[in-house]
Amino acid sequence: MQNREERNRLIEDNLPLVGHLARDLHARATHVSLEELAAVGALALVTAAEAFDPALGVPFGAYARRRIVGAFADEMRSMDWASRGIRKRIKEVTAVRETLTSAFGRTATPDEIATTMALPRESVVESLHDAARTVTSLDDTSALNVPAAVALPEESAVLQERREVLTRAVAALPERMRAIIEAVYVHERPVKEIAEQLGVSHSAVSQQRAEAIRLLRDAMERFHLDEGAAPTSRVSETTREAYFSRIAATGPSGRIPAAV
Q1: With bands split at pLDDT 50, 70 and 90, how would you rate the model's confidence at 144?
Q2: In a domain, 148, yes or no
Q3: 146-173 pLDDT per residue, tens
Q4: Is residue 143 included in any domain, yes or no?
């Protein structure tokens, strides 16, 4: 198992990878906040560094990329604005466009696609516009272009401990943040739907989710990594300490972990 210094070096050396992947995805999906992608990617990088086993002979960069892209995919699923029916229509229209483009040796026009599919031109144009907003088909993970040959390490005691800490950290989140995190990552509900249920804007839900992720990262540093790193969350120190106290209260026999 690697020591803390090696783990930190892996994180520091590969932070540019997070930025690169986040910017690349944001360029193709401008409706997704670059800051949120970076936060999700950074958390994935930290967990990848914790779980990485050099003995596997897999380059850390490839391993981390798989974890980061996978986290982005989860993020996109949680923010999915399109129904299954809309995604099906997008897939059909883009498939016909690709077939005609290949046959003509040029990009097929909306009129040509509409004629081929016996659809109104407006419907085809709308589908093409929706396709431009969609990073990838959420039903086809192979489109993420992640090296399938990269093996994932087996579950270890360290990973199990991290998972337990994360579970406690989620349970201790402020009620609104916890509800949003569970709705997004457990029940896989679209952010738009969550916002409507809570009676707030899409942006408000996204901000609460981003802040919850930062709090969870702070909790992992405090209770699992024991490094005393500077907090990333933007809440007040009083709120953060109260959050840490709630996590500590859920530890074995209610005792505060040694990291506190």
Answers
A1: very low
A2: no
A3: 333 333 343 345 555 666 777 888 889 9
A4: no
- 3-class secondary structure, 46: helix
What proportions of the chain, in percent to the nearest 5, are helix, strand and coil? 70, 0, 30
Instruction: State pTM to two decimals.
Output: 0.42
d(CA 122, CA 254): 61
SS3 of residue 74 by DSSP: helix
**Burial label, 175 (beta-carbon count in 10 A; 0-12, 13-18, 19+):** exposed
- Same domain, residue pair 177 and 214: yes
Residue 88 shares a structural domain with residue 186: no
Residue 127 lies in a domain: yes
Same domain, 171 and 195: yes
Q: Check whether residue 14 and residue 70 sit in a common domain.
A: yes
244 is a domain residue: yes
- Mean local confidence (pLDDT), 241-260: 65
Q: How many domains does the chain have?
A: 3
Helix, strand, or coil (residue 80): coil
CB contact set of 185 (below 8 Å; sequence gap of 6+): 74, 78
Residues 22 and 116 in one domain: no
Quote the domain boundaries for residue 164. Answer: 155-260
Residues 248 and 256: beta-carbon distance below 8 Å: yes
Each residue of 17-68: pLDDT tens digit? 888 888 888 777 666 777 778 888 888 898 888 888 877 777 888 888 988 9
Containing 127, the helix (H) or strand (E) segment is: helix 121-133
The CATH number of residue 52's host domain is 1.10.1740.10
Decide: 33 and 39 in contact? Cβ < 8 Å: no
Q: How far is CA 18 from CA 9, 28, 35, 36, 69, in A?
A: 15, 16, 11, 12, 9
